[in-house]
Amino acid sequence: MGSRPPVRNREARRRWRGYVYVLPAFAVYVAFAVLPALHTAYLSLFDWDGVTLGEWVGLGNYAEIFQDSILRRSVFNALVLVVFFSFVPIVLGLLSAGLLARYRRPGMGAYRFLFMLPQVVPLVAVGVTWRWLYGDDGVVNQALRAVGLDSVARAWLGDFDFALIAVGLVGTWVLSGLCMMLFLSGVQKVDPSLYEAARIDGAGPVREFLSVTLPHLRGELAVAMTVTTVAALASFDIVYVTTNGGPGEQTTVPGLLVYRLAFSEGKVGLAAALAVVLGVLILAIVYLINRLSRDRT
Amino acid sequence: MKTVARSERWSGYALLTVMAIVVVIPFLSVFLASLQPAGTPVVGLTWPERWSWDNYETAWSVAGFSDLIRHSLIIAVGVVPACLVLAALAGYALGTMRLPGGNAMAAFFIAGLTIPVELIVVPLYFDLRNLGLTNSYLGVILVEIALFMPFSVFWMRTHFLSTPMSLVEAARMDGASSATILVRILLPLARPSLMTLGLLVFMWSWNQFLLVLVLIQDTTKHTAPAGLGFFVGQNSTDIPTLAAGTIIVMLPILILFVVFQRSFLAGLLQGAMKG
Q: Quick check: ipTM above 0.95?
């Protein structure tokens, strides 16, 4: 490599020229995603109805989020959904991976196909389907009546105590397959001799899972936690279609309130503030998950 | 020892099988409901006495699903090629050239993976309305491209990082320009990655709901999921027609999934990052 100044300048210029390729993607991304996100943060500092002139309120909207019981409730509901969207699918996924860790597993192709089905279809269609399953005449009640549990049968999505759980279980249905497939493909990469070694050392299945399988799934675990937690916190489609937040505020989630506040109640600033809280919450959790999963390696 | 192993193996398969049944029943239930005579009350899983395919005709023409499907396709056809081209260009530069600040730039794109639609949709409505881009497919297309760009760039950069640099260097020695290297040498090799990305982006575009709900308030211009979401509020009593509409909205994605299973699965599992 020549090191005389003119050559180095030309070399430097040539390196910068690569940005020509990055520019179009960068421009669209900044214009229609990054700037709107910053604009949301700016709007969150105003009391604005979307029509007349906005009034600067500083952090007032944020204060309102922490004081208003419905807004607080929506954040709480989203955290409850994390249990069903994230925790349960991950446990099921780990269970299946643990049970099938040590074997060649013929016939996995069909399972993989079936488990991924809920992942590919629109969540709105999933919502419509479950609305019908949870209805008075739906499959859920049909099954309960078939085993003599007539007294348990009810319109699940309209039930004050069970609506949030019912919505959560839709998330479990959507995301469990993905977690299972992630962990099963992760466990396939584990060197079989590790299991043999563990066996020789007299390890039982539980011990083996904890000391061989689980440590090897750290990467997949981080991915599964990230995807499912974000899906829970930013949920909108399923809730909008199945319950629209009801009964009462039992299934209200932040996504639903951002939409409702901004476009039917004329509280754009408050909606923006809630969107920012949601965005920060997601960012913090994603950061935390990835930080923790890296630290232990 | 043998018997323990066998019982363990079976319990694994038993769990997967129970899960598979639970996954399939909702699909089966909505499919069977779609074949019952229109307007009849349907109870759970019931085998239809007569297969009434005319619900599909009703949903397609009367309920307007043909228009909804067409609108969704218009948007997807705008989004997918643009995403592929922009991401290939950016991924090429970020993956093969040592750009000054290239890693920071890549990180800036990847940070976008955490942006939920909720975070951007409110100002987008007001900004695009000022530009005359609400109730317009172009508006939705531009926003979707932006929304999928973090993953797309991340995906293509990962692909280009894994291509052997010796190929690029050899071509450079022969005096090929960076554009020639991309078009002649790297893009033909990138076809599988591009196809998987195309399928994923198509799927996300097809399934997008909140964005369309906000940016296209004119219901005659709705996309398939938005139309379905609207339809369920209006027509929750005619279960067979509603079920047929639901199947129609799912069908394009299901067909792609059946045909391109391998690419889809690889993309979904590797690309689960997107969320």
A: no
